[in-house]
Amino acid sequence: MTLKNLAPLCILLLTFSNEAFSQNMSFEEYNPVSTLRVPGKEIHRAKFPFIDVHGHQYQMPTQDLSPLIADMDKLNLAIMVNLSGGSGERIKQSLENIKNHYPNRFAVFANVDFDGVGKPGWSEKAVTQLEADIKNGAKGLKVYKSLGLRDTDSSGKRLAVDDERLSAIWEKCGELGVPVLIHSADPKPFWDEVNSDNERWLELKTHPRRKRSATDPASWEQIIGEQHRMFKKHPKTNFINAHMGWYANDLGTLASLMDEIPNMYVGIGAIIAELGRQPKNAHKFFVKYQDRVLFGKDSWKPEEFPTYFRVLESDDEYFPYHKKYHAFWAMYGMDLPDEVLKKLYYRNALKLIPGLDKSLFPKE
């Protein structure tokens, strides 16, 4: 058989091979390009200068901040709040680095080490250290999700979010007038069965360590309930509930909680996909609670910010999200009014976080 005669057979086999692959394609591989053509465009720069209240810069004590500032300026990010400040000498080094280079572009939150809760004098020592960190320039306290999930007391027992031995910390923040940004638990589907009904199936398949159960280490309802009870016990302290308290997919329940807990604010870090699939409902929520919602991104990936801007600012339809395992659905714009955007982007943060440079924002 000549090469000329073999050519049609090769084409046939290649076509069959491609078709067989498509029939056996996994869900992870299936990621079609939409054929829909509707008006709209990406937004690469926020309409107003904004404060990111949920940033993480772990190398801030020693890093060159110039490249970071250059990326921030492209986005119109006026102030980044670094929640990974640590405490003691570490936070002092970060604050010194900022002071020497960009004194008005960053704020740093302190962290509390919960190791040793239950030992004599732990509470007094922790409060003293926090007070020193605030005096040295920290603008608030960040509490990681390890509280309620992984942290244990001196006897090895899981440390509940509303453990009474931590009360002095929350009270001190209220006394000093600084907010507490707290992340408790994770999305509820991480506790659900991993089956065809679970919207986070792909994420749990690709990140299996995120799976939880009612005994690993407690149910989602228990941890979230602890957080809410803690908020209520300390009404003079302002709490920023990270990730909208994992209720961005249930804004009706979140609205009831907002009404019930007036000292609770919410940040939108890592949940924009929930808002982008319910633009009308989310629009109403943001208008109603416009004084208590703050912008936050969580991970520092400048290329992902345009999705946030587009969901918040535009009325665009059916545009892609940036991370398939978080959301395999398309986004829609919420088309928020300018007055709501200004509060979300900077006014609410200026109100809650002391000592930020107001001159970086439009004159009111």
What does this structure look like?
This protein is of the alpha/beta class. It has one domain (39-357): Metal-dependent hydrolases (TIM Barrel, Alpha-Beta Barrel), CATH 3.20.20. The protein is 38% helix and 9% strand. It contains 13 helices and 8 strands. Strands 1-2-3-4-5-6-7-8 form an 8-stranded parallel sheet. Helix 9 links the parallel strand 6 and strand 7 (264-267). The chain is globular. The mean pLDDT is 94.
**Low-confidence segments:** none
| Rg result | 23 Å
Major sheet, described briefly?
A: 8 strands, parallel
Q: Kindly state the percentage of residues in helix.
A: 25-40%
Give a count of the beta strands, DSSP E runs of length 2 or more.
Answer: 8
**CATH homology-level superfamily:** Metal-dependent hydrolases
Pfam families: Amidohydro_2
Protein name: Amidohydrolase family protein
GO molecular function, one term: carboxy-lyase activity
GO biological process, one term: secondary metabolic process
Main features:
ACMSD, alpha/beta, 38% helix, 9% strand, Amidohydrolase family protein, signal, 364 residues, 8 strands, TIM Barrel
